[in-house]
Amino acid sequence: MAFETIRQGRERLIALLLTTPDPVLDEVASLGIVTEEEYEALEKLAEPRERIRRLLIKIQRKGERGCEQFLECLQSLFPDFPPDLQPPGRRCVTQTNDAESLEGGAFSEKNEAENPEAAVTLGTNELENPGGATSLEKNDLENPENTPPHEENDLGNPDGSPSSGEIDPQNSEDATSSEKNDPEKLEEPEKPETMLSSGKGVVTPNSATTPIKDEPENPGTALPSKNDPESPGGARSSEKDAAAVSSKRADFEGSGNIPSHGEEGKTAAGKGTIEESRAESPGIASSVERNGAETPGAGASVEKSRAETPEDSVSVDRSGTEVPETSPNKVHAGRRGAVKTVLSKLRLRKFRNGKLRLRDLLEISPESLKDWTPYVLGDLPWHFLRKLMALNGTARSTSLGQGTSDEDTSEDEEGRVSGDVFSLREDKSRASLHPLDVLCAVLLCSDSFLQQEILSKMSMCQFALPLLLPALDTPKCTLMLWAMRDIVRKWRPHSLADSRGFRAESLVLTSMPTISFVRLGSCSFSKSKLLNEVLSPSQQHHDFFIHRDMDSGNVPREIADGLVEISWYFPAGRENLDLFPEPIAVTNLRGDIESHWPQFSFLTEVSSAVFIVTESISEKEYALLSSLQGSATKYYFILNSQAGKAKKTLGFLNILAPLLDMKKSQLLVKEQSNNSAELVKKLRSTLQGIMSSSPKSTSIQHMAVTARELGIQVDEDDGECWTALEHVQEITSEIQDMAKYKREMLRLQGDLWKNLAKVEKELCRMKGQRDVSPEDYRSQLRERWLELRRQQNQCDLTSGMVKFISGIGQLCPAEKHHFLKWMKFHLDHIARGNLSSLRAEYKEKCRTLGDDTQQLAELDELISASSLGVEHFLRELGQFYEAECSMVKERNLGNIQRQFVCLPGIAADLMLEGFPMELIDGDAANIPLQWVTDVLTELHAKLGGRSRMVVITVLGVQSTGKSTLLNTMFGLQFAVSSGRCTRGAFMSLIKVAENFQQELGCDFILVIDTEGLKAPELAKLEDSYEHDNELATLVIGLSDITIVNMAMENATEMKDVLQIVVHAFLRMEEIGHKPNCQFVHQNVSDVSAHEQNMRDRKHLLEQLDEMTKAAARLEKQSRVMKFSDIMDYDPEKHSWYIPGLWHGVPPMAPVNMGYSESVCELKKYLLEFMRHRSPRRASKNVPQFIKWVRSLWNAVKHENFIFSFRNSLVAEAYTQLSVMYAEWEWDFRKEIHLWMSKTETTIQNQSPDDLGPGTFEKLRLEIHQILHSGEQKMLQSLQSYFESGAGNLHLVEKYREDFHRSVTFLRHELESHLLCKSEEAIRIQKGRSKIDHLQTGYMKTIEGKVDGLLRDCRERDKALKPYELKREFAKMWKETLSELPLESLPLRQIHKDIHYQLCKDLENRGSLVKQMLHKAQNLLTYQSKPFCMKKEYLDLAWHKAAVEFITQQCTRELEEFTKSLMEECRKYVGQKVHSQGDYDQTYCRELLWMINQRLQENVTGKIRISASFEVDLKLHILGEAASTFQKMHEDFLKKNDPQCRLEELRPQYFSTFRDLYYEKDACQKRAFDFSHQCLIPALWEYMKKRLGIEIVDDFLSSGESIEYGSRSFFQFTVQKKLLEEMDFNNYMKYVSNYEGFVKAWIQTCLISHYRETGGLGELERMVLATIMKKIRDALESSECQDTLTISEFLEQFCQVMCKELVISKDNLEVILFKNTASVRQFSADIQTFLPQVEESILLGWEELGGEMVFTQLQFKPQDEIFKHVFGCGKQCPFCKVPCEAGGSDHKQHFASVHRPKGLGGYSYETTDRLVYSLCSSDVASSKSFKNLNTAFKWHPYKDYRQFYPTWCIQPDPSISASDYWKFIFTKFNHQFAREYNVQPANLPPEWKKITKEQALQSIREAFNME
């Protein structure tokens, strides 16, 4: 038993069902095994196991039958369902004879009338048992005795047998009548009298119903019922079980129309599922064969089987007995039940009220990557929609995919097959739904806009469209007028064939004859198949209508009966090929006319002719047809001749002929002997005859009038649609002439906008500058630009725009959506009319005017201006918005006065709804940047900041199907076939599903559609190539994936386009943007195209490589490049061959299946590509996209294609990289500085004997190792950073090499520094060796004398008093010093040594130089003399005209060089002095090498200098150095004078002597002396070395560190501070001595920072605490504590601390003198004094004060931070602004903002006025320059890199970019002039309007600080 099976296998079932709990629950609900309430209750349970557990309990409560159904359901869901859990065999009742069959199977109308309670009981039982078996089943299966008694049937045979002549006795048991279970058949039309009286009423046929109850058939012989002419032999779906039927049958209670049941024929014995029979007519009883035997000849019988005619047949009770009319409410309820069941099966219930939207369908989800094969019924709607959106011809197929099992048979142990090999049973998994049921369900669950899209795509696929939708969720059927509004068709009627003209019109507005085809009664051939053959052109068959022989066409319909489909034939203008000369519409009613009289009545009203297909006509049909008397419509009959019926049928037709005004030609007979081709031929001939007889024509829009009169709903008749239409009509009613309307109503986008675009580009390109200075010309252009904006702003909103804004701003979202759609339809309609007449006029004038091109040109321009779409209205809004924003920025308008501030939000909403938004205005070739920016910003805000997106763009020649490709791929709505090609670029947003966003790496896909390159209408313009270049550069720059669309296999015709693309990709590569490229070759249908074109692809790649090399040369790239270097392109993976769009000849050609499949394959590849790409590269979000648009458009406007441009995203990524690099660099430097500090300390602690020849080599090896380690660490950090996935790193990939090189450069710099410092430390220590050796000898002597004095004093008789002791010691000290041979180092004359070195350096320069040196004064005298420039320093003999200007230029250049060199030399000398060593001859040699090197690098080749300049320069530099070095030498001698050093030790010796004499315990005193005489000096020196390093580390990690994080940050900070202070002197220092200013600035900032924070004291304590801990650790260490003597103790202590402290050996010797203290006591005493030591040192540093602290430090923090922000130190060759590039060794120098050259002292040659032009403007102008580098020859600024190849000077990214320096120049114009001793500049008036706030804002933008 099934109940027991579930009970015993509960745990196994739970485990199995937990794998897919939701599908199981959906399936049992759709089959009716559980009720809706139960389903919803289970759905609410969150825990899957609890849900399944309760489901099993509910199933068991439904009894045995419910359990059986449940197990059957599981068996169909799980192919590997365990055999022991499968449902047990059912008991069955076998029919043995005719009488039993009739007794158990049928009762007549009379029977029902006499036994009403039996019928009622049936309905009641079903209502009571919705989840289990019907009462009918119970009666048949379990309680056969309860079967209603059989009474006399309607034929008068009491035994139930048919009368002779009516039914073949042999088939009597197979003729039990069954009624189709479809709620729609219950519709009871109005009575015929109503129609006759009104003229347009609905005729009601006389209906007789024979409800016949059937019982289960013998499953061994059962076959599927054949109850649909479209599906002979088709099996019922396994999902239509009796439980599902019961909910529908309950609706029949009280109507007298009880649907019967038929046994499912494909289950094993005893397991058949009772199903409802499918017949066409709901109100009439249908017959079902019991054993499946076909009985085509028994058509006249009452119980005749209709198995072979499931679509069009219905069994009519011949008695003509009327049945009582069914209540309309109950009819509708029955239909609703059927719909509910279908929706449950398709899992569309949730969309019944909340409709499915287009954007939901287009959402990118994981399913987008999967195969679209449906496996369960719930997949069918999505399969249909996805395939349809992709224009796939198989979209209508509803067949389900096969499971993994292929075989039904099993083998025994010996391998023999058990059971039948062949069987007529069908696999349950093949059960499905009829395609039209799926279509109706999908349309029911779709909103009106998705319906529109569905029908548009169906039209492209040449599918018949639903004209009248059956009454699914409404009482009446619905005319699909709105759904067809979007369809536009083109055709060429024969009347235009000669002129080769064409017509294009909206389908719903096109009037044409309509021919309708309907069915009356039964018909054994398919009407739909016949229509397909009639409408299909020769050799191009197409299935417009679904028919029984199509895939899934044999599945019985459940809700689609009553559907009226419509298809069309449009001629192509070829008389020999066209079937009809003019368009014709053909409609097809699904179902019998008697059952669907309202639809039939509608068709009779709108049709030119109605063809009625039938096989026989009896009295009932005659009565029905006779009601049509008086109708104006022509009626034709297609009679399928059947033996035995023809005579009777013809008799009725002859009677009808005069009533319906029929002629002989209006009857077409299909003889059994003829094939269908004959009938098709006859029918086409008849239709041609109708077409030639001037039939009435009507449009679908006019049909709506008729529909409303007949009470049929029209889908447009809802409030939202009509409200929107009223708004639209107010606008479009004013439009007659589009060009005129645009001029008058859309004024802002006409000449005003085009002129604005020209001015904006001219502001960047400066082509019309002529002799005007760049800044004056810019000011003029800016004033012109502002004037145009003022004119725009002064324009009032026209009435059309007011109404448009009202439409998109005030309507609710649904009304707004309708409004925009209506706008599109109306505007396109008007445009088509305008263009049609203009083209006709153009053609006529071409014929009559001949060579008169002027009128043709005017007409051509008028045609171009005659396009008008919604985008023009939105463009106008954008211009109003931009004009208003401009006025606000110029302070001509206050924020409170703004009118259009809400517009970007409205536009953003439209983008979210899927409307394409214009990015580039194709008419003006410009981007409304402010509008686009604010719209996208609003979009970002509405998305809550979640706006990561991948950008896909398409490029290609015009009219190659780019928009169609995108629309097909993504289901978008880019304009196609609307009378105009795409102009400019449009962007559309596609949402990515939540569960796919992380995997795909984005939240949206932004698709950009562009206008075609090489457009014919632009070809005549001079700048058409430039236009294409701009477009390609922009869209490729914005895209992550670029589709290059080529409409031919041969790429040679695409050469120009490919060149454009290559140039664009090359420019993107320069900024690190490397998009993926997909080449799409369209119209390639050969299956071998990909293989055959391998050579072509190779050739294409070679061409692309050649183009890349050529482009690189044009772009002035020095490196050799290939195409693969500039973009991600793999010829094998990224080349696509796509067949042509149409399969055949339009307009009747459907979309090519190959096209659809290829496009889908491309889409899947793109999504996979994005998925694999996402971990490596982060997607840009909307703000980043805005920055890209801004910077790219700026580059395009500047024609700045030769070298890379930097947008804010690149700048941001570069700055972040620079900040990280600066951190790594400081970590490296810090490590090196600490190592050097310890090494110097170690060297200073070593004796000269230890510093042997190998010491330096050992240090060199150690230096190499530490530098190598640090370098590798930095390189690894750099590598890790680029692999970290940080934002936009790919944009700075090109700079990785610069930073890599900078690391190596830093390593070499540090290596040189360390080697020099180490060598110098060793040299200094060795230099002190002689002095230290002598000092040691002197101290031994003194100690001996002190020891002798001590003995002498002790031997005296009386003790000496303290003053006596002091006198004796002083006497001994004096005598000893006088006796000592004190030997001091000799005092050298350093200036003489330096003079000698100088003479040696210049000895080969000739006699003149020797004479100058001989005459030179003592070097020391040059210290006080400033170096002044002399005329004789310049050798201008090489220049023919040594004019004053050249002299000034050369003099200024030489002055700057001299100043820089002298400063560098001073810095070197200062470093040597700071080392506190003695002078060494190498110092002078190094100075001379530096001078010679700089002279060679910076002067040679630029300025010819005389020998006197070099001599005087060296004399001044070396003279100043000699004086400093002399003082350094003297200080060294003084510090190391033996007597001075001994005198310093005298107090300590006396103290020791005194303590020894008085025999005091001197341990504590010695410890005190050690702490104060040894530790404090050592610790002070330690602090001087370490504190500077820690200050830098602390400062760079503080809150202010961001200001010093990169050059750009620092520049912004300094300039902002200067602006706040507005001190001219500071600006002067900043401009004229940047290095000095920055150093002073940094020091001031450091001092200020630590003064405010008090952090310096903390740092001092921290540094001191660190070393004090090491001292304590050393004192307490076992190595020190275990020593035996104080000498050993101190030696060990010094050894431990040798890397940290330099302890004076002199003081140490004094401490050791006569020291016999205990080691442990001495150590403990020292530690007691350590707190005093620490306090003393901290107090000393505190007393120094903030500023003095920095002077004490050996490691200068300000110098290190200066290196951090100063960079390479290079300055712009024109305006001297410092380079901001990161690292130390970069290829190119750049600066964010350049400044007027006059700030650097440049003045005009003729007027002596300061120059106010900016180099960033000059490089974009036609101006020229001359200077030393050009040998004073004029050279274009645009080619400045010829002389300054390492500098990249970008044009200003905006008009306001240089506002900061313009403001400063304006404020301090006169002060700068006085400083430079020239005249003030004549600044443009515009500069004076710049405010301080605008100046600050300009540097915020320039340095990316917003």
How many β-strands, per DSSP?
Answer: 24
This entry's quaternary arrangement is single chain
Binned, the helix content reads 40-55%
**Biggest sheet details:** 9 strands, mixed
* Low-confidence segments: 90-327, 404-418, 425-430, 1201-1206
| General form | elongated
Mean pLDDT: 76
Q: End-to-end distance, in Å?
A: 76 Å
Structural class category:
mainly alpha
Number of helices: 68
The largest beta-sheet arranges its strands as: 14-13-12-9-11-10-5-6-15
Structure description:
51% of the residues lie in helices and 6% in strands. It starts with a helix and ends with a helix. It has 1906 residues and is mainly alpha-helical. A hairpin with an 8-residue loop joins strand 5 and strand 6. The radius of gyration is 50 Å and the shape is elongated. The strands form six sheets. It has a nine-stranded mixed sheet with strand order 14-13-12-9-11-10-5-6-15, sandwiched between helices. A seven-stranded mixed sheet has the order 16-18-19-17-20-21-22, sandwiched between helices. Strands 1-2 form a two-stranded antiparallel sheet.
